[in-house]
Structure formats: C-alpha cells, structure tokens
C-alpha cells in the first residue's frame, strides 16, 4: 500500500511494518508488498461500491445469525434436562457437571481465538465456529452415552467459544463508528436465540413425537444457515482489514477524516495494543471477574431455572416459557443498554441497576417461586442483561482493535473459567440439601460482588492507558 503523505506525523521505518504485521495475516502482508510496487490510493475495501455494500450487508446478517446460534446449544438442553438425564442415566451431580461444560469450554477454547484470527482472519474463524456448532448439535443427541454426549457438546461449545471472543473484535474493527449499535444488534440476536430455544424446544419436541433427541438435533439446522453469509466474507478478507489499515496509516477513513500513523514509543505501542500486558490492568481483572459472575448467573439460569420452576409445581411447558421470558428480556434491552452505555463516561449506575433487579428476583424466587413466577422471571431477565453491558465495556475499555482482541480474550476466558464452579455447585447443593433454598441463596449472594467489580470495570479509561502509566 502507498504511504499517505499529508498526515501530521511520520511513522518510523521499523515501527509501522511491525504494527501492521501484528494485526494482519501473512496474506495481508503479501498484498501490502504488491501494493507498494506503485504509488496509488490507500487501501480500501475490495471491489466496487456495490460489492462493498453487499459485503457490509453480509457482515451484518452474518453477525446476527451467528449471535442467534451462540446459546440454543445450552438453553435447548436446559429445557429438556430432565428427559436427557433420564435417557442417559445422569445423577444430579453429573447434570451439574453438564451445566458447567459451557463455561469450561469457553475458557479453554476462547483464549485461542485471537491467535486463530490473526492467522486466518476473524470471519473465517467465526464461519468455522458455526460449522463446529452444527456438527456438535447434530451428533450429540444420538450418541447414547454421557461421556460422548459431553464430547459432542464440547465440539459445539468450541465453535461458540471462539465466536464469543471474536464478535467484539469484528464489531470494533469492521464498524468502528457504530460500536454501540452493532453490539446492541449482536446482543439482541444472542438474546433472541436464547429465548427462542428455551420457548419452543419443549413444544417442538412434543410435535416431533416426544423424542428429545430430535428436539435437540433440530437446532443444528440454524447453525447451518449461519454459515452462509460468512462465505463471501472469507473470500474477501480485505473487507475487514482495509478499514483498520487505513485508520492506522493516516489515510482517509471513509467518513471524511483521516487517522494519524502511530509512532514507536512505549505509550504508542500500548495505545494500539501492541505489547500490551493485559494481566497488569486492574480494569481488565475487574472486567474478567464481572464477566465471570454474570456468566455464573446466566448458566445457572439456562441450565437449572426450568427445573427450579418444575420442582415448584410449574408444568414443563410453562417452565420453558418462563425461561424464555427471562431470556427474551434481553432482546430489547440488549439493544438499549449498549447505546446507553456508550453515551456514559461511567457505566456503574447501569451495573447497580441490573444487580438490584437480580437481588429482588432471587429473593422472590426463594419466598414465592410460583405465586410471583412471572415477575421474578422479568426481573431476572433484566439482571441477565449484564452480558451485553460486559461486551460493550470490552469495546469501551480498549482503544484499538488489537487491544479489544486481547481484552476480550482475557476477560471472557478468565471470566468463564471463574464461572465453572457455579452451575456444578448449584447441582451439588440441590442434590444434598433436597431443595432449591441454598442454591438460590448462593446466587443472590453472588450479585453483591458482581455489582462491586462492575462499578470498577465501568470507570472511564482504557487498558492501554493503564499500561502506559506503568
């Protein structure tokens, strides 16, 4: 690519290539070499304006469809957990282990997502993730044993894990001027997929003759559809990379402005995420703990909430609908909350509001699980919207796409690792206490530290700025 000569600063000869090599793949490096052979206009997305517009539509559709597929593997299982337990001969403790598999897989596989994205591009990795989800969901209902069921679930969850981490990266990189809107759209799709699977899995299973295996396997079809819009994005990898390259090199950014190139100072490298030591950031740790505590609540809800309502005397279909209500609250709020968050310097008030809703919802579930079931479902649904808030804060607490990739991988992997004991502990407490009183009290108690660390994570600033001060 040609260098732009109208910027206010000039990058050092060594630093600019190093910066670009850090964030682009070998294929992109080859493209830069070819472009340097002649002076021409700076990098733009591939093809004509019509092609670029078409690719942009594919990206939006791909993000929404991918988001729709990131939770049905979990909530469809929660709706049929009793049937799966009977079919595979699971104890309560083993079922608790099953509900702990999602965060375990997210922690193990999510940490590899940035490296895979640097090698193959984030679009290709997300596309492969959708294929992995489809295969896992198609295989697991028919294996006939608990260990293989867990392995097939892990295959699907591997695809979910890498997509979880890369979605904020894709939004920040491909839509830098619409982070709040695109995060909201992605979060809405995620909430819609979660609630849809919770609501329709039981009636769909009944319509399929009561076969829980078919009721679970049918969700593989949605993942197959989600593969399609990512295919043209893989063939046009420059679509995502060209905008980021232009912003780094001080060339027109497509919005009537330009970005200055970075220098090679330590502060500049921190600003762009190059050499960022994410584990030294207090904000990163606070965000990871916040992510882990909200994930604990989310996976306990998805894995156990229908069973809590069923044990209280609610029918299986109504329990599924109550879970769907909890998750459906995320559809409108997942769009509203990120837009509110990006307009605030400090997201602490939103964190506190969501936490108080969770405390009231768990208290109601403890004292009157049936009488106020719909109210508690609504309140817990509001509380569960800590997830889109956490995603938004990932984008806001880092100043570059490389910084977002590191922060997203760290916060999600460490957070999901922290959340692993929660669903398992809930299953053990339920089995040994003979009721849901202790598990519900545990979940209410965890809301307090979630509020506290969320307030820390919501303070204005970036992890790059923290690193530069050290």
From TrEMBL:
Transmembrane segments annotated in the record for this chain: 54-74, 94-113, 120-143, 149-171, 183-202, 214-233, 284-304, 316-337, 349-368, 374-395, 407-430, 436-457
Pfam family of the protein (one): MFS_1
Signal peptide positions (record): none
GO terms of molecular function: transmembrane transporter activity
Domain of life: Bacteria
Bias type Low complexity, positions: 8-19, 27-36
One Gene Ontology cellular component annotation held by this UniProt entry: membrane
CDD domains to which the protein is assigned, alphabetical: MFS_NIMT_CynX_like
Alphabetic keyword roster: Membrane, Transmembrane, Transmembrane helix
NCBIfam families the UniProt entry points to: CynX
Protein name per the record: CynX/NimT family MFS transporter
Natural source organism: Streptomyces triticagri
């Amino acid at each position: 690519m040609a260098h732009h000569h109208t910027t206010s600063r000039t990058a050092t000869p060594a630093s600019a290539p190093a910066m670009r090599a850090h964030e682009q793949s070998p294929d992109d490096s080859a493209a830069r070499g070819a472009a340097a052979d002649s002076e021409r206009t700076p990098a733009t997305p591939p093809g004509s304006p019509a092609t670029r517009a078409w690719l942009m539509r594919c990206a939006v559709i791909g993000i929404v469809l991918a988001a729709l597929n990131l939770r049905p593997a979990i909530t469809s299982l929660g709706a049929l957990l009793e049937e799966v337990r009977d079919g595979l001969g699971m104890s309560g403790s083993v079922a608790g282990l099953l509900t702990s598999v999602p965060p375990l897989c997210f922690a193990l596989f999510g940490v590899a997502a940035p490296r895979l994205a640097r090698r193959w591009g984030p679009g290709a990795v997300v596309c492969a993730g959708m294929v992995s989800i489809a295969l896992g969901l198609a295989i697991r209902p028919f294996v006939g044993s608990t260990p293989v069921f867990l392995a097939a679930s892990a295959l699907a969850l591997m695809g979910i894990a890498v997509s979880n981490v890369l979605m904020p990266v894709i939004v920040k990189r491909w839509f830098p001027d619409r982070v709040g809107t695109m995060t909201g759209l992605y979060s809405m799709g995620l909430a819609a997929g979660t609630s849809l699977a919770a609501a329709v899995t039981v009636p769909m299973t009944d319509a399929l003759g009561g076969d829980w295996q078919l009721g679970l396997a049918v969700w593989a079809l949605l993942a197959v559809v989600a593969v399609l819009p990512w295919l043209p994005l893989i063939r046009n990898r420059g679509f995502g990379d060209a905008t980021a390259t232009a912003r780094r090199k001080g060339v027109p950014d497509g919005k009537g402005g330009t970005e200055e190139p970075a220098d090679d100072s330590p502060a500049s490298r921190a600003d762009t995420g190059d050499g960022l030591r994410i584990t030294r950031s207090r904000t990163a740790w606070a965000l990871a703990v916040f992510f882990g505590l909200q994930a604990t609540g989310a996976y306990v809800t998805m894995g156990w909430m229908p069973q809590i309502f069923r044990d209280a005397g609610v029918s299986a279909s109504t329990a599924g609908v109550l879970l769907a209500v909890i998750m459906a609250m995320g559809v409108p709020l997942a769009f509203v909350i990120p837009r509110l968050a990006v307009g605030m310097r400090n997201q602490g008030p939103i964190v506190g509001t969501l936490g108080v809703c969770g405390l009231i919802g768990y208290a109601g579930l403890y004292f009157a699980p049936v009488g106020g079931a719909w109210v508690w479902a609504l309140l817990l649904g509001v509380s569960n919207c800590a997830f889109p808030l956490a995603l938004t804060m990932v984008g806001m607490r880092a100043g570059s796409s490389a910084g977002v990739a590191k922060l997203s991988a760290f916060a999600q992997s460490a957070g999901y690792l922290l959340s692993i004991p929660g669903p398992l502990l809930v299953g053990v407490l339920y089995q040994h206490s003979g009721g849901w009183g202790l598990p519900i009290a545990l979940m209410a108690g965890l809301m307090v530290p979630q509020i506290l660390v969320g307030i820390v994570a919501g303070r204005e600033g970036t992890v790059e700025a923290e690193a530069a001060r050290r």
